[in-house]
Specification:
The complex is a heterodimer of chains A (about 525) and B (about 750). Chain A has about 525 residues and is of the alpha/beta class. Among the domains of chain A are: about 10-215, Pyruvate-ferredoxin Oxidoreductase, domain 3; about 420-515, no CATH class. Chain A has helices spanning about 5, 25-40, 65-75, 95-105, 125-130, 140-150, 155-165, 170-180, 185-195, 200-215, 240-250, 260-270, 275-295, 300-315, 320-330, 330-340, 360-365, 365-375, 375-385, 400-410, 420-435, 440-450, 460-480, 485-500, 505-515; strands at about 15-20, 40-45, 55-65, 90-95, 115-120, 150-155, 345-355, 390-395. Chain B folds into four domains: about 20-250, Rossmann fold, CATH 3.40.50.970; about 255-435, Rossmann fold, CATH 3.40.50; about 455-625, Thiamin diphosphate (ThDP)-binding fold, Pyr/PP domains (Rossmann fold, 3-Layer(aba) Sandwich), CATH 3.40.50; about 645-720, 2-Layer Sandwich (Alpha-Beta Plaits), CATH 3.30.70. Helices cover about 35% and strands about 15% of the residues of chain B. Chain B has a seven-stranded mixed beta sheet, with helices on both faces. Chain B has a six-stranded parallel beta sheet with strand order 16-15-17-18-20-19, sandwiched between helices. In chain B, strands 9-11-10-13-14 form a five-stranded mixed beta sheet, sandwiched between helices. In chain B, about 55% of the residues are buried. Classes of the chains: A alpha/beta (about 525), B alpha/beta (about 750). Chains A and B meet through helix 1, helix 2, strand 2, strand 3 and helix 4 of A and helix 9, helix 12, helix 15, helix 16 and helix 22 of B. Chain A: It comes from Neopusillimonas maritima. Chain A: It is an enzyme of class 1 (oxidoreductase).
Chain lengths: ~525, ~750
């Protein structure tokens, strides 16, 4: 007897589940095993939990073989304990980048692999901690997935799970059922969930939602819409004087810049008052004229659009008055209730974590007073200890609310405060630089506008951003009149956003000193 | 209380003879111990055998019914020394731990145990944490077996073979008076499979019987001259006895029905399934282990049985050895055996396989392909036609989630089946490189609400103020501080050795060294090796002990200082008493680690104080994973009963947040994430706290301590509010509502 005649040609179904720790990848794997065993299959699963329990990425691997084949052979199968790249039939990923990781590991191949991936994102720590926008483009995974998999199902299984009041393992299970990738009936799947005995109703609901979506899944998954929603310019406004400003925008500014101008106008008016909004538009009128004069039309009004954003941000700087206003609004109270999912019969108390430093306090004082304290070492020494500790403020209690509300009401004195004076000085310098640069180097002027992105945050963070911003502005002045100035400034700005301390920016500046000289 | 409860699963331990057991490998091994009439079991938890310890702890009543004693040992050294009960008495004992780290700790006791030898069967079950997902250094247990002459079992990774190996191990140990190590790889421990059970057996001779009639034999004590004799005895008596037993009982398996008689494969038992898959992928085997090339499976990897090797290799041109890890002890051994017997058979091993790294199925297949190319290339399936999309540009060295580099994934030839065997055409990795640019790494990190996170936030802030310091890490959850976003800690020398590994830095400097250890490590050996050593040597550095009430990283088992009331153990023994007991003068205890500013101030105090001697800071807060498991059901129950309950969670005001993410860089909490701002004026995403938040308060405290920003808020959600609540709410609503609608009207006026 040669082994050739005894060899059995039945092939197991090979399944890899990629999940993050705590997502329930193990539950899903166990469900598949239970279902397969109940349906007369031989099932093996294994995993490497280890430290991956703690939020890391992990793989569960399963192989399924018809029990009949095992009976015929009269011996247990020798199934593999880990996936072989190129040899997997079904890959289930509980998050989009984990789907990407499956492709990266070679588990997804065009001739045979069905890839089912949730399209939702759980951002990796590197994406989250970037000082700017570190989010990876998920559409790249979808694009590659389309080519890498035989069949690719990709939709938001996390939100379907939440809709059903369950967790993602249930909706993943539903998607697997709906995809038809496994030779089991819907009843087999559902019976498995029922036999688990925990949260059955919610799991079945999430299962059903995902099942339907998977059944009707398109041939290839759609791209995720990552473009910011284009805001329409409203036709009219309630208040006649606001309407006049709106009409001004509609008539006198390029359409491309109008949505941003509307947002900017809204921000500046909310920040201070209608007159402040008007001031904003006057600044913008000047920039728009310049834009027109130096070829903005051919550049899609880049200068006006960029400035519409950052002039508003610079004018409506983040001070304690604005924070107090935002924290006390009715819409904010409702949003908090929504966010914490409070039920109508539950009360929600909100405690604010405020930490105003002496600088912030001085900033809200009239200029003469604020400056006096800031310039007096002895006064500072005496006052500083009062602001060393953070404050907890219950904004839902009467005292807490009234304090914040009163602070927000200081809006009317804002123009006389020290902070306003400082902000407006910097703003004016920046504006002048833009106005000076645009005639000579349009692109550089746009980049100078965008450098404002660095100015954000509060307290120490603000100071750090401010110092990076100052470095960029200095570099911009040096770059003026040089070749590729805009591009070089953009490189510097990206470097400034790349890390917290600005070491990349410093390194570049050091290297480039001669070039800028 | 362990992280995972096995209360339901352990009922399977009771099933009688002849029934089918279905479940996880580690549970099957527990059942096998009971079937073998084991008298006592001990061990120290750690992946992948934490479950074994947890299963035993949850099976306390079953063990008591059978008269089996179970201990959660203080360390692997304790566990190994526990086996000394089998030296003089015919009692079967089993101990377990994570290898190789645990075997390192245990090896003093193991060496002594092996020297004197045993009477009752002594089995060491090691969970081999090697390869992908491993959290420890990559070494081989094999070396320990060789140096102490302990027999090493490495069974095929199916439940039947593993269960059989337990029984065989005890018998082998008794037949040769030698302890035996049963090595189980990590995937094997967690594999789901089945086997037919036998009846549980009570120990033939019990521990109490032994205590009642004590025995001693100076010939078994490791002391000269007996110790000199032991070495000879090992070779003269125990080795031949073992070889005889292994041969007679056929512990190693030969599958030689294959038609390719001039080649062979020798494989460590644990790699058998991978070897079969590698053969199958080249069309030379099916999924049931029917292979065209004969296979010799070493279920016993030490000692190697010379006769069996000679017999298997006889008339073979070449044999491929699958031996994972390095050095290649078995390969060297095989070559010695064959040269001594004058055989010409070629042993191919690390010449066609990678010297180091995990033997994945892909690696094994590639090795086999090279082997066949060298020996019998005509056996390789040939390429008959171009397979579709066979774009074979090997993407190698890609990083997976755990930061491991995948071993070289060489391109496999696209192959077509030989008659009768179906071969899988393999298309390789054409997208690997492309997607590597996209997919971010996803390292493990602290859980949501982990009480250790604020400690490292505070340490980061301390360093921002006082400059960078040398920080020695330890083993445990706290080692995640090494990873982003904290990036703290320079070394990790072993469990409980955090303080000890700073010992050399006991010199004058403007900056004191900082060492960190957990409560698990502290009780494992840190008290003596770290604290005691520091007191004795007048060490001037700072030692941080993180007391989270559990041995958390291994799955939340109790330790001496745990707060739980454990009916079988003595808990609630405070660390501070132990620290003071060995003579530490400067000790600070903070019983809420989330107080970031306070922790930071304490760090600064410890780093700058004039006082000499070790500065010990004990930071206490319960492991959040375990706390949630404990508290959540209680909370839900109370709410159900209509009690007034307050749930805390945190939030971020997206319109206040400016999208700088400094808070994330100081926290890294999974529930603290980012989202689109919905504000056209903000280019960067804003911080956002999702619904997994457990309300630990770390983000608020961090924003206070670091003076970050006022966007954080804590929401207290009052379930079942009482009358006083409702009254207050009405009054507030009246005033607040009035003012809010006033502001709303103003805003409406200027709205666009």
């Amino acid at each position: 007897m040669t082994s050739q005649t005894t060899q059995n040609n039945v092939n197991p179904i090979k399944i890899a589940v990629l999940a993050m720790g705590g997502q329930g990848g193990g539950v899903l794997a166990d469900w598949i095993v239970t279902m397969a065993e109940n349906a007369g299959w031989w099932a093996q699963t294994t995993s490497v939990p280890g430290v991956a329990q703690r939020t890391g990425a992990t793989i569960y691997y399963l192989e399924l073989l018809p029990e009949q084949a095992v009976k015929e052979m009269g011996r247990q199968p020798a199934l593999a304990l880990m996936p072989t790249p190129g040899d997997v039939d079904l890959v289930i990923a509980a998050e989009l980048m984990e789907g990407g990781r499956a492709i990266q590991r070679g588990l997804v191949t065009p001739d045979r692999t069905t890839l089912i991936s949730s399209s939702h994102r759980a951002y990796a720590v590197l994406e989250k901690s970037a000082p700017g926008n570190g989010i990876v483009d998920g559409n790249k995974v979808i694009d590659i997935g389309k080519r890498a998999a035989k069949r690719f199902l990709c939709f938001d299984l996390q939100s379907l799970a939440e809709q059903g009041g369950s967790v993602i393992s249930a909706s993943l299970f539903g998607a697997v059922a709906g995809s038809g990738a496994l030779p089991f009936s819907r009843e087999d799947f559902e019976a498995t969930i029922e036999s688990g005995g925990k949260g059955v109703k919610a799991s079945l609901k999430a299962f059903a939602l995902a099942y339907d979506v998977a059944q009707n899944a398109p041939e290839t998954p759609d791209a995720i819409d990552t473009a910011p929603p284009q805001r329409a310019v409203p036709d009219t406004a309630k208040h006649p004087r606001v309407k006049a400003l709106l009409d001004d925008i509609r008539q006198n500014f390029a359409p491309a810049a109008q949505p941003m101008l509307v947002a900017g106008l809204q921000r500046t008016m909310e920040f201070q008052d209608l007159a402040y909004g008007k001031e904003y538009l006057e600044h913008m009128r000047g920039i728009h004229a310049l834009d027109k004069q130096y070829g903005g039309e051919g550049k899609n009004w880049a200068l006006t659009t960029a400035a519409a954003r950052y002039v508003a941000v610079a004018m409506a700087y983040d001070d304690v008055i604005r924070v107090a206003d935002l924290k006390t609004r009715a819409s904010r109270f409702n949003r908090v209730r929504d966010e914490v999912r409070a039920k109508p019969d539950q009360l929600v108390y909100t405690t604010e974590y405020m930490h105003p430093r002496l600088e912030e306090i001085c900033g809200t004082m009239p200029t003469f007073l604020g400056e006096r304290i800031e310039n007096s070492e002895s006064l500072k020494r005496w006052l500083q200890p009062l602001f060393r500790k953070g404050r907890f403020l219950n904004s839902t209690s009467l005292t807490g609310f009234l304090m914040l509300y009163g602070l927000a009401g200081m809006r009317r004195f804002r123009r006389t405060t020290l902070r306003h004076k400082i902000e407006m000085q910097g703003f004016q310098e920046w504006l002048n630089l833009i106005l000076q640069t645009a005639p000579n180097d349009y692109d550089l002027a746009v980049e100078i506008v965008n450098c404002r992105r660095l100015v954000k945050g509060y307290s120490d963070t603000h100071a750090r951003g401010q110092s990076k911003y100052q470095k960029l502005i200095r570099a911009a002045r040096n770059l003026s009149g040089q070749n590729n100035a805009a591009e070089r400034l953009r490189t510097l700005r990206n470097a400034a956003l790349a890390d917290e301390k600005g070491s990349q920016l410093d390194a570049l500046l050091e290297k480039g000193d001669q070039a800028f000289a | 209380m362990a992280e995972r409860s096995f209360k339901k699963e352990v009922q399977q331990l009771r099933i009688g003879a002849g029934e089918e057991f279905r479940g996880e490998g580690i549970l099957a091994v527990t059942k096998a111990l009971l079937q073998s009439g084991v008298g006592y079991v001990a061990g120290y938890q750690g992946a992948p055998i934490s479950h074994l310890m947890d299963v035993l702890a949850d099976a306390q009543d079953i063990l008591e019914e059978l008269d089996v004693h179970f201990e959660a040992s203080a360390s692997e050294a304790t566990a190994a020394a526990t086996l000394s009960a089998s030296v003089m008495y015919p009692i079967r004992g089993a101990v377990t731990w994570k290898s190789t780290v645990g075997t390192n700790v245990a090896s003093d006791a193991l060496a002594n145990l092996a020297s004197g030898g045993v009477t009752g069967g002594a089995l060491v079950i090691v969970g081999e944490d090697y390869g992908e997902g491993s959290s420890i250094m990559q070494e081989r247990t094999h070396a320990f077996a060789m140096k102490s002459q302990i027999w090493l079992l490495d069974p095929r990774p199916n439940l039947e073979s593993m269960v059989q190996a337990v029984e065989d191990g005890f018998q082998l140990s008794e037949a040769s008076n030698t302890p035996v190590i049963l090595q189980l790889r990590i995937r094997t421990c967690h594999v789901h499979g089945r086997f037919i059970t036998k009846e549980n057996k009570r120990p033939a001779y019990t521990l109490s019987e032994a205590l009642e009639s004590p025995k001693r034999d100076t010939g078994r004590i490791v002391l000269p001259p007996a110790a000199y004799e032991h070495e000879h005895e090992k070779i003269r008596e125990r080795w031949p006895a073992a070889v005889k037993f292994i041969k007679e009982k056929k512990l190693n398996e030969i599958f030689d029905e294959g038609d390719i008689k001039d080649l062979g494969i020798i494989v460590q038992g644990g790699l058998y399934n991978g070897a079969i898959r590698s053969l199958q992928l080249l069309g030379l085997a099916d999924h049931f282990g029917n292979s065209r090339i004969p296979i010799y499976v070493m279920n016993v990897t030490y000692p190697v049985i010379d006769d069996e090797i000679n017999e298997f290799c006889k008339d073979k041109k070449a044999v491929l050895l699958y031996e994972e890890g390095q050095p290649n002890y078995i390969e060297q051994n095989l070559n010695t055996i064959l040269r001594h017997s004058g055989s010409n058979t070629i042993i191919s091993g690390k010449d066609v396989l990678p010297i180091a790294g995990e033997y994945t199925t892909a690696v094994m297949r590639d090795g086999l392909q090279k082997f066949l190319t060298n020996q019998r290339p005509e056996l390789l399936p040939t390429l008959e036609e171009k397979a579709p999309a066979a774009s074979a540009n090997g993407g190698n060295g890609q990083a997976n989630g755990n930061g491991h580099d995948q071993a070289d994934m060489e391109v496999a030839e696209v192959t077509r089946p030989k008659p009768a065997v179906k071969e899988q055409p393999i298309h390789f990795q054409s997208f690997s490189k492309e997607i590597s640019q996209v997919v971010p790494p996803r390292p493990a990190g602290f859980c949501t609400g982990c009480p250790e996170r604020p400690i490292f936030s505070a340490l980061k802030l301390t360093q921002e103020k006082l400059g960078e310091h040398h920080i020695s890490g330890d083993i445990g959850c706290h080692l995640f501080s090494v990873l982003p976003p904290f990036n703290l800690g320079a070394t990790t020398m072993g469990y409980g050795l955090g303080a000890a590994s700073s010992a050399a830095f006991n010199v004058k400097s403007s900056k004191r060294p900082i060492s960190i250890m957990g409560d698990g490590g502290f009780w494992h050996n840190g008290l003596a090796s770290g604290i005691g050593n520091a007191v004795f040597n007048k060490y001037d550095g700072v030692i941080v002990i993180i007391d989270n009430y559990y041995s958390a990283a291994t799955g939340g088992q109790d330790v001496l200082s745990s707060r739980a009331n454990n009916p079988n153990r003595s808990t609630n023994n405070p660390i501070i008493d132990a620290v003071k007991g060995v003579g530490v003068k400067w000790v600070r205890v903070i019983d809420r680690t989330y107080a970031v500013s306070k922790v930071q101030a304490t760090f600064e105090d410890a780093l700058t104080t004039e006082e000499g001697g070790p500065k010990v800071i004990i930071l206490q807060s319960e492991c959040m994973l375990n706390k949630q498991r404990r508290v959540k059901p209680q909370f839900n129950q109370a709410v159900k009963e209509g009690k007034r309950m307050v749930k805390e969670r945190f939030g971020v005001d997206g319109d206040v947040c400016t999208g700088d993410h400094a808070c994330i860089r100081l926290s890294g909490c999974p529930s603290l994430t980012i989202k689109d701002s919905d504000d056209p004026l903000k280019e960067d995403p804003v911080a956002y706290i999702d619904n997994t938040c457990v309300g630990c308060g770390n983000c608020g405290e961090v924003s206070h301590a670091a003076v970050l920003c006022p966007s954080f808020y804590r929401a207290d959600i009052v379930h079942n509010p009482n009358k006083w609540d409702m009254f207050k709410s009405r009054v507030r609503q009246r005033v607040i509502g009035f003012l809010q609608s006033r502001r709303s009207r103003q805003l409406e006026q200027i709205s666009l």
